[in-house]
Amino acid sequence: MFRRPRPTHDAQVIAVTPLTPALVRLTFHGPTLDALGVEHPTQWVKLGVPEGHSRAYTVRHLRPAEREVDIDVVLHGNGPLSRWAEVVRPGDAAVLAGPRGRRPSFEDAGHALLGADESALPAALTILEELPAHIPATLFVEVGDATGAGLPLPARDGLGVHWLTRDPALPKGGTLADALLAADVPSGTTAWLAGEAHSVATVRRHLLTDWALPRERVHSKGYWKQGEADHKE
Ligand SMILES: Cc1cc2nc3c(=O)[nH]c(=O)nc-3n(C[C@H](O)[C@H](O)[C@H](O)COP(=O)(O)OP(=O)(O)OC[C@H]3O[C@@H](n4cnc5c(N)ncnc54)[C@H](O)[C@@H]3O)c2cc1C
What we know:
Bound molecules: flavin-adenine dinucleotide
Oligomer: single chain
Structural class: alpha/beta
Mean pLDDT: 96
Order of helices and strands: EEEEEEHEEHEEHEHE
Shape: globular
Strand order of the largest sheet: 4-3-7-1-2-6-5
């Protein structure tokens, strides 16, 4: 498929803030980041590092006036971006290309069901921050262990939160999938799911077939795939 080239923005890391043992916030400053133009929740950029690798990361916050961007990176220990994020220091250079991504529509939703692992939690939080206040929401998050839970969440009435500690006997994403396969899905639900590709696909099928949600009410994306570097879908 033809894709327009992404505008690229040179940037410098200006702060490294651990959020949990598995998630670190990198704050970037760049002379053109005021023009990044993020318009809706879940938009993402390709984050390129000096060794030449690049991967997709959600723009957690954009502060155009300061020309700053926050990106929350999972330290899973097994890829060039994760390893870079473990050792990065203020002053290090990077390139942000984008933004990309479609707006997940929650128009007319009677309930928002959000399912995420740690890689998709930043995007899920961007949705929660912009979701109209009258839509009740339920958030399921799989985290590596109990220290991953408890990140500050947007204050809103009617928000149900399930922090799920990963069952080490299951593949990554399996704990999230099992919880969502067992969850109630109120009528009028619009779902947004992201994380490990197999688990996301399993839950998507379940919502479409067992709960008969219309396709336009199930937004889903495999953000990474077990055993595959630089997964794209
Ligand atoms: C639209 C979009 C938005 C995303 N937003 C974020 C974000 O905000 N924060 C974030 O951390 N990630 C996010 N991701 C996921 C991120 O792009 C992938 O996790 C990416 O593979 C990380 O690159 P890497 O170099 O660390 O590992 P890769 O070189 O891509 O993979 C190396 C190995 O690590 C495994 N792996 C990759 N990611 C994970 C993981 N999260 N947990 C466990 N094992 C993994 C792979 O299966 C592979 O075996 C997003 C992905 C997409 C598509």
